[in-house]
Amino acid sequence: MVSFRLTALAAAAGLASFAYAQTFQRLGGCPTLGCVFPPDQQDFLAGQLFDIRLEVHAPVNGSEAFNGGRPDQNFTFFVSKVGETPVPAAQFFGVQEPRLETWNFTYYTDLFARDARAVTPVNVAAKAYRRVALFEPGVYAATLRYYNGTQTTAYWTVRDIAAVRRTKNILLFIGDGMTTNMITAARLIAHKQINGRYQSLMGMDQMPVIGHQMTHSLDSFITDSANSATALYTGHKSTVNALNVYVDSSPDVFDDPKVETIAEMFYRLYQGHVGIVSTAFIADATPAALTAHTRDRGQYGAVIDSFIHGIVNYTWTAWNGPDVIFGGGAEQFCAPSLGGVTYQGQDYYNVFNRSGYTVVQNNTSLQRASNSSRILGIFSVSNMAKWLDRNVYTANYGGQKNSPDCRGGNATDQPGLKEMTLKAIDVLQTRANSSGNNGWFIMSEAASIDKQMHTLDYDRALGELLELDDTLKASINHLSQLGVLNDTLVLVTADHGHGFDVFGSSDSQYMNAQRTDRAKRNAIGTYANSGQSQYINTGSLSYGSSNFPSNWDPRYTLAQGFSANPDHREDYQVHKNGPRLPATNITGFPATDYYVNPTDSPTGFVVNGTLPTNADQGVHSLTDVPVYALGPCQEIFGGSYNSIDVFYKMATCLGLSRPNAVSSGSVAGSNGQGGHYGGQGNLGKDYQGITQYRQYNESSPRYGV
Amino acid sequence: MVSFRLTALAAAAGLASFAYAQTFQRLGGCPTLGCVFPPDQQDFLAGQLFDIRLEVHAPVNGSEAFNGGRPDQNFTFFVSKVGETPVPAAQFFGVQEPRLETWNFTYYTDLFARDARAVTPVNVAAKAYRRVALFEPGVYAATLRYYNGTQTTAYWTVRDIAAVRRTKNILLFIGDGMTTNMITAARLIAHKQINGRYQSLMGMDQMPVIGHQMTHSLDSFITDSANSATALYTGHKSTVNALNVYVDSSPDVFDDPKVETIAEMFYRLYQGHVGIVSTAFIADATPAALTAHTRDRGQYGAVIDSFIHGIVNYTWTAWNGPDVIFGGGAEQFCAPSLGGVTYQGQDYYNVFNRSGYTVVQNNTSLQRASNSSRILGIFSVSNMAKWLDRNVYTANYGGQKNSPDCRGGNATDQPGLKEMTLKAIDVLQTRANSSGNNGWFIMSEAASIDKQMHTLDYDRALGELLELDDTLKASINHLSQLGVLNDTLVLVTADHGHGFDVFGSSDSQYMNAQRTDRAKRNAIGTYANSGQSQYINTGSLSYGSSNFPSNWDPRYTLAQGFSANPDHREDYQVHKNGPRLPATNITGFPATDYYVNPTDSPTGFVVNGTLPTNADQGVHSLTDVPVYALGPCQEIFGGSYNSIDVFYKMATCLGLSRPNAVSSGSVAGSNGQGGHYGGQGNLGKDYQGITQYRQYNESSPRYGV
């Protein structure tokens, strides 16, 4: 339970005052007027690269107004291991003192202020120390002094993790938005039960170790997928919308302080092979977070560029691109002449192709592609087709004008998550074997569990979850056949939840025959009247050895729903004509006021929303999500822990910690204190990816705002 | 994963046809016209006592109408281990052939039939074999033949569990209705967080092993607490409302086929000491299920009698009463002259007192009572006071006229779950030490998590959950101080869920200031705008070293809710005047049509229900619930499993299996086949609680209907 240890130091840090304006925060990670990023209470892997951002705020008005709106430009910043003498940060890390930056921003203090359009301007003085690292395990104090003696101290902990590798490969599945509640529902509709006994089991059910991870953000208790992916991949929680940076207040969305990801470290330390697979458009947050560093997950063009070039506006971890990238989102690859919206107007199919990637755009080509070459597979515009439409309501599969060449055809030869993941395993295993055998890391995301839960489309969401589970089973079998199952840690987890559950059955015949909303609700059977699942063995669909419902449209369906939703209508019946649109703007433009979609679920009853009226879909929820583990190192994934611990556990298994890099004597120099910076000496072969540790300040920002 | 193994035999059994009328089933555990209880696919602990019920149905009308409504009275019933020659059941078990019984019942086939009041009568021929057992591990076939060749075969599996004891004591906590989602919410409001790092942890968070258990019923996917407790305590799933019986169709609610509970077996095999603790009225399902056997959980008087006398209408496991019974529900103890509604009009305080129990009715007396004597502690009429009212809104604690002597005073000296549980440990440990040192089993239930979630009273429910967690921590400390922590397996689980989650924060000031329902919804902050929890460190309440909110009424509260609810109004603010009443019947008597309670949450917005309009509260949900384990034998509680597996795991740890009782040669007789019945021979000292295995048929039913 390392991550939750309350040290005396941490308790002391807790005495800092908090600003309690919740709805709109001045700057989430900084409740005081002096900001240190990474903030107090953050953990680090030994040797993990990160940036530091300091800010001093002077709000011009409001309850926090200070110093006439003039921020202190003479702030100081000292760092030391606790118990040692604080040292100016530039000296401590052996870098040049960064230049002073200034800017301003505005915010609303609360909803009343927003309604009154009463903004609070804040003037800022700031600095950034870039690309530093801490090696020696222990607690460090980083103290910002400003406004004549005010101080903000961040206690940073370098975890004491040995540099011992325990697994060669990691196959990480992420069911986006997937909760235990959803897994339970998916099991019910796809696995036959006799007298309370399941006759088959989910793959997840057969994983030997279960943990629970807490998904909250640094500065809010509900997270989004960018911020949660950051936690899973870097061990650092951040703010909603942020990818692998702490969010500062500057206008530039690409200058926020970065943290190195597991993919970057695995490549830097081992030249490890990385695979990225998702059913989303591939610039979406969960795949993006393996390589991108920006506080704005919406910078899709830059995300795609980061996949192949890494970070280019600052010196950062060298990055040569993953072995495979499989997903949707052709609109960030196609040339602008075909409607592509890409970084710097380039044709990214060409960019990847020139770098040696085989480019494929359908499942047939994917399966035929050599396992020896790197492959970019983009199979549709936007998110890929849903399992339910690909396999059952196939009329929705065509006609989408979503072909990945952006020429207006239909993408009707898309692989599923299973086909993509098995191919990824083949390529990564082949290529790792042929170049050093340093192992591989694959992230495979079932993205549309989340996307379909957002739109209350339960059937499609559960179909995606079942596809994930089918992929899990097939992957384990495939790894076993390849003889590498014992070398591979298989993990299944999620990044956050939706407040979903099943509470009974619904008699569709009865509901459809009733005339009033209240009468329709009496179609719902609770407790004993929920009966048995009718999704299995009441129809004729068959999927070979895979477990999916045999009937998606039985008389007795699941009654299910959310703790939060927009106005909508419920008939608890499958949406055969394609993904659901529960709420629509029927009051004009811009669309800020959503009501029941009059054409959705027409035989159902109206459910008014519990969300703000500008919400057209459901939102993420608080619940801890499960972590399932199988393979070498599985035993450390049991129990309850923070989302960031998933990173530290994976890093432990992959042997990414370098606690002795300095104390072992391999680095010495006069420009820094021992034990906590990188110098220019010989770092040993594990560090071949790093040319130097010195900060390259603000060099030619490449991504403009 | 023993419980889910799909054998070829089980697959064959799956070919049986199913009736798919869901809302109203003819008889849940019997989709065919010939019924065997225990039904197909059931598991048994070696040596566990059970009854067998056979029924042949002849529906008079409807789609299942058969044989002119005349049930076959000449049915036969054979049993054998698979691969051996089937033997008539009476011979197999060495009991007399039971007499034929007949009756009839009616049911509605679906909601249309109910609306039309079109009942379907069913005539029944039946038999019951009582108090039998199977010892030898393996699969048995039990075949009912009826209607000239039709047959229903139940495959029963005796699990292969060694008779090895691995823990001396078990402390089983049940958070009724508690889900991972609720634990996450409780952690958020009671444990301080700085920058995404919790500064303290739940006790549950620190349990090393997590499992997930599936809570569904035998015959419906949503369970109630009686049926789910039956699964946890006997390893047999049943039907909603049933306590330790399979539900037959006879009019007598006390003649359904029984299954022996863990408490009964522990007492029979080891003279083990049992403690029963709950914050509910003590006749409620979760405590009742340790000793009661009836399909109607509402038979409260009989439940209380079963606590002290065990089962008295049939010969059954000898039972001498638990060491402690602590809870509410004085109305089932007080003499009828004081308003008590008791079994046979007796004063059960006197009944227990005459049997040597110290009777206490408040916390002061409880704490003073000797640990050497058995104690009955009943502390209030009905359910006990909620933590929130006992500790924060104390004005609601008095004035309830709920004193446990039923004389109209106020029960204002009630112990909490912690005080009851620690005292239970003291008594059980003292008494076990002084009589054979055979260990103890305590079930401690936080009952009002469920009760308050039913009425959408989030604050009170989370208060109860936090009290459970505080009790867990205190119990582990206490066991450690007593030197018996290493002898005690500590488990925390639930019996089912509610579809609850948190999805943001709510600005109470803003909501209360808005005038329309839609404007009020805009007070809700999602994602980044959910902010940090304000329940900690914004108020002045303090609970010593226990973790509870310091402010239950902050400006920014949790926005939370359910997937299922009646019509109600939400303001997401604490209900200071006592437990919530979300919906009321405003249309007359009888109360079958519920609307928003006009006096509840007056500054909130209306949320229409998603449940039948006769629902005045929320309902249980499908989700798997967590199992936390700490102590000897903890390692077998990881992974995903069925609720019944909790019983088999506990029975494994306590050494309750007797797979070799017969094959060891200790029993032989001409009146039965070897290996699967009990005869009258010497069963060895482990079986001292059993006088014989023969069935005592229908002897003097004591509980009338």
Features:
globular; Alkaline Phosphatase, subunit A; alpha/beta; disordered N terminus; 705 residues; 10-stranded mixed β-sheet; homodimer; disordered C terminus; 22% strand; 18 helices; 5-stranded mixed β-sheet
Subunit organisation of the chains: homodimer
Question: What general outline of chain A do the C-alpha atoms trace?
Answer: globular
Largest sheet geometry of chain A? 10 strands, mixed
Number of extended strands of chain A:
30
The CATH C-level class name of the largest domain in chain A = Alpha Beta
Task: Give me the CATH superfamily of the largest domain in chain A.
Answer: Alkaline Phosphatase, subunit A
Do you know the CATH topology of the largest domain in chain A?
Alkaline Phosphatase, subunit A
Rounded to an integer in angstroms, the radius of gyration calculated over CA atoms of chain A is: 26 Å
The helicity of chain A comes to 10-25%
Count of spatially separate domains of chain A: 2
- The percent range for strand residues of chain A is 15-25%
The overall pLDDT of chain A, averaged over residues, is 89
SS field, number of helical segments of chain A: 18
CATH architecture assignment of the largest domain in chain A: 3-Layer(aba) Sandwich
- Tell me the span between the first and last alpha carbons of chain A: 41 Å
Largest interface: A-B, 130 and 130 residues
Kindly report the spatial arrangement of strands forming the biggest sheet of chain A. Answer: 16-17-15-14-18-10-19-29-13-30
Instruction: Report the uncertain regions of chain A.
Output: 1-21, 663-705
Q: Which structural category do the helix and sheet elements of chain A fall into? A: alpha/beta
Protein name (chains A, B): alkaline phosphatase
Active site (chains A, B): 225
GO molecular function, one term (chains A, B): metal ion binding
Cofactor (chains A, B): Mg(2+); Zn(2+)
